[in-house]
Amino acid sequence: MPEANEQAVRVELAQLRQEHRDLDTAIQALAGTGSADALQLQRLKKKKLMIRDRIAILEDQLFPDIIA
Questions:
Q1: Which pLDDT belongs to residue 68?
Q2: What is the number of domains present in the chain?
Q3: Is residue 68 in a domain?
Q4: Which of 7, 10, 16, 41 is buried deepest, with most CB atoms within 10 A?
Q5: How far apart are the C-alpha atoms of 66 and 3, rounded to whole Å?
């Protein structure tokens, strides 16, 4: 992987990890209020899972699983 591309992947990975943490905090806060909108919680959780999947893809690009 070219170094410029690797740097771009690392930047995107850092941004996605931060967004994932922010969503986790928002989900916990919304669920903790007791008057949480179930649909909104479901959407946030789905978005969080999509971000987690994207993080896994980027991590695989940076650290390929090479069986020796």
A1: 61
A2: 1
A3: no
A4: 16
A5: 19
State the DSSP string of the chain: --HHHHHHHHHHHHHHHHHHHHHHHHHHHHHHTS---HHHHHHHHHHHHHHHHHHHHHHHHHS-----
Domain around 16: 1-59
- Structural contact between residues 11 and 50, judged by C-beta atoms closer than 8 angstroms: no
Residue 2, amino acid: P
The C-alpha atoms of residue 66 and residue 30 are separated, in whole angstroms, by 41
pLDDT tens per residue across all 68 residues of the chain: 678 899 999 999 999 999 999 999 999 999 888 777 889 999 999 999 999 999 999 999 998 877 76
